[in-house]
Amino acid sequence: MSGSAWWNREIRRADKASPRQGAFKRMDRLRGQLQRLDPEVANRAWREVGDSLQRITDRYTR
């Protein structure tokens, strides 16, 4: 089984349990992918993800 298929199955399984667990699995997958990149690119990607998550959090906590 390829890594992609494994992640897809794990994410679907986590989504069934709760949206939060699904989000954590997606972040784990992203973390694994970003480890292979140049650190400067990975840091920029994490900043963008953090900014996006903050906007989502702000929108739903109002």
List keywords for this structure.
62 residues; mainly alpha; 3 helices; 87% helix
Description:
The protein has 62 residues and is mainly α. The chain has one domain (3-61). The chain has three helices and no strands. Helix 1 runs antiparallel to helix 2 (19-34). The longest helix is centred in the last third of the chain and has 23 residues, at 39-61. It is flat. The mean pLDDT is 87.
Secondary structure blueprint with pairings:
Blueprint: H1 3-17, H2 19-34, H3 39-61
Q: What is the general shape?
A: flat
* Main β sheet profile: none
Radius of gyration: 14 Å
Tell me the span between the first and last alpha carbons.
43 Å
Q: Give the helix level as a range of percent.
A: over 70%
Write a concise synopsis of the structure shown.
The chain has 62 residues and is an all-alpha fold.
